[in-house]
Amino acid sequence: MAESVDLKVLETKAWRLTFQDGIWDIFFGLLFLGFGFSALANQIFDLGTIIILIPWNIATVLILCLGKKFLTIPRLGFVKFGNKRKKTRKFILIFTTINVAFALFLLILSYIGLSGWFQLNPLLDPLIIGFLVITFPLSIFGFFLDFYRLIFYSILAGLGFFLSELFYPITGSPFDIFLSFFLIGFTIVIIGLIYLIKFLQEYPRIKD
Amino acid sequence: MAKKKTNSDESEEKVLSLEEIDKVIHEPARLMIISLLYVVESTDMLFLKNNIYSKEEKISWGNLSSHISKLEEAGYVEVEKKFKGKKPKTFLSLTDNGRKAFAEYRKKMVQVLGDMT
Questions:
Q1: Which of A116, A146, B9, B25 has a 20 to 30 Å separation from A102 between CA atoms?
Q2: Where are the beta strands (DSSP E) in A9-109?
């Protein structure tokens, strides 16, 4: 048993335990994989991005929910956290809304051809966009959620557009985006699977 | 004129403070249970079992149940039985009394241990 009882540490330990199943890692990995596949699909048929992304993301959310319900809770148990975590959730919700609005703003700018003001350098632009749209918001989530692996994933994913620029001369479009996000998503899914296997071994299912 | 406290008077006071420590909370397993319930809103028995000790040292279901019963009898923990499908599930949360008693216990322990020479 622990020698001393530090309540903050106890709460954080219990909270972090909910990320040890690797299911959130798999969730983020699948989201980035989906992004890669959608880039490829857009080349094959009209509206391919939407046709692939919507069902893919629905399936990813389902995997997260079902994984938590059938793998995590029967092994780890169920817990409702206190006010501190509820406030964090509220903050994240507001922050996500602002980020989605910002991403939409960038998207609209690029559609109406007003994105020229942030075109600085063919290699620097994807780094800046990746940082603004992926790395920065996901790092904030990772920090406030005490889910520090997410900060590492946000850096990986933020490099996605930059990597695609490096792949472009070799593979051409759209395989550049597909390959970079496929590699990033695949890496994150593998990390998640390793965590999941360790979790399943450490917390066997208890018979009712 | 007020009588000056002697060393033996002070020692006696410390012993009295020790006797005032809530013994329901003071038992190590119950202290861990109540500490965990203090920092979360509610939890089921399984999460509690997985979290109150280290990975190597787990508490048995029987022991856990007996400690929970003692905390429930003292009015510190609320036990709620719910059905998830056909399976019964036990959810636990700290009562207001339990919260106050734990805060008081912490205060008292700091006081007693702080004064100890």
A1: A146
A2: 79-81
Nearest to A147 by CA among A204, A203, A92, A205: A92
Question: With 70 as the cut, is the pLDDT of residue A153 above it?
Answer: yes
Chain A interface with B: residues with Cβ < 8 Å: 1-2, 5, 7-8, 10-11, 13-14, 17, 75-82, 202-203, 206, 208
What are the structural domain ranges in chain A?
2-202
| Chain A residues with beta carbon closer than 8 angstroms to that of B43 | 77-80
What is the percent of chain A with per-residue pLDDT over 70, rounded to a whole number? 90
Helix then strand then coil, % of chain B, to nearest 5:
60, 20, 25
pTM score over 0.80: yes
Cα separation, A107 vs A102, whole angstroms: 9
Inter-chain residue contact A7 with B89, CB threshold 8 Å = no
DSSP one-letter code for A18 = T
Residue type, A22: G
For chain A, how big is the Rg over CA atoms in Å?
Answer: 19
B89 pairs with which residues across the strands?
A: B82
Range in A103-117, B52-66, B94-108 the model is least confident about: A103-117
Token pair belonging to A137: 């918001």
Helix (H, G, I), strand (E, B) or coil at A21: coil
Nearest to A1 among B28, B38, B45 (CB): B28
Structure token pair of residue A91: 């903050």
Chain B: closest CA distance from residue A8 (Å): 8
